[in-house]
């Protein structure tokens, strides 16, 4: 996925569902290890709730908030992997399936293929790991 959203500007911003209903506040942004592009955001869904992972593509910044083109229930039902950790390829695939996103891999590298285990996904923006 590619997005024009600057990950440094997302932390602390409000997130909204497709109907404009507030979901929560963005806690962290995860980058794709292969491309360095922002790919997922963790949204704190309530005072005592968990973080829900949301895709940054096809989400859009509108004003001061991130608008995610999915219903609130689907977002809140996203798999919970905890924040502050690296997303494994398996976890990222679960998120792709949950949001019914197209999983496309670059065709320029014939050695790398889905499931080959040589890609790491989900680096946290600002971390050195």
List its traits.
single chain; 129 residues; alpha+beta
What share of residues is helical? 10-25%
**Averaging pLDDT over every residue, what do you get?**
82
Kindly estimate the percentage of residues that lie in beta strands according to DSSP. Answer: 25-35%
The tally of beta strands, per DSSP, is: 7
- How are helices and strands ordered from N to C? EEEEEEHHE
Sheet of most strands: 7 strands, mixed
Q: Structural class per helix/strand content? A: alpha+beta
Q: pLDDT below 50 for ≥5 consecutive residues: which ranges?
A: 106-120
Q: How would you sum up the global shape?
A: globular
What is the overall number of helices? 2
How far apart, in Å, are the first and last alpha carbons?
A: 21 Å
Radius of gyration: 14 Å
Short account of what is shown:
By secondary structure, the protein is of the alpha+beta class. The chain is 12% helix and 26% strand.
Can you put this structure into words, describing what you see?
- The chain is an alpha+beta fold and 129 residues long.
- It has helices at residues 72-76, 89-98, and strands at 14-16, 22-31, 38-44, 51-55, 60-62, 65-67, 123-124.
- Mean pLDDT is 82; it is low at 106-120.
């Amino acid at each position: 996925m590619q997005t024009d959203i600057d990950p440094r500007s997302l932390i602390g911003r409000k997130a909204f569902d497709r109907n404009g209903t507030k979901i929560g506040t963005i806690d962290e942004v995860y980058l794709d290890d292969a491309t360095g592009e922002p790919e997922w955001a963790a949204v704190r869904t309530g005072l005592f709730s968990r973080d829900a992972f949301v895709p940054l593509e096809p989400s859009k910044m509108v004003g001061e908030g991130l608008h995610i083109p999915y219903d609130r229930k689907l977002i809140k039902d996203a798999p919970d992997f905890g924040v502050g950790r690296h997303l494994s390829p398996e976890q990222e695939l679960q998120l792709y399936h949950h949001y019914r996103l197209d999983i496309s891999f670059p065709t320029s590298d014939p050695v790398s293929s889905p499931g080959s285990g040589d890609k790491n996904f989900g680096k946290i923006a600002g971390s050195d790991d």
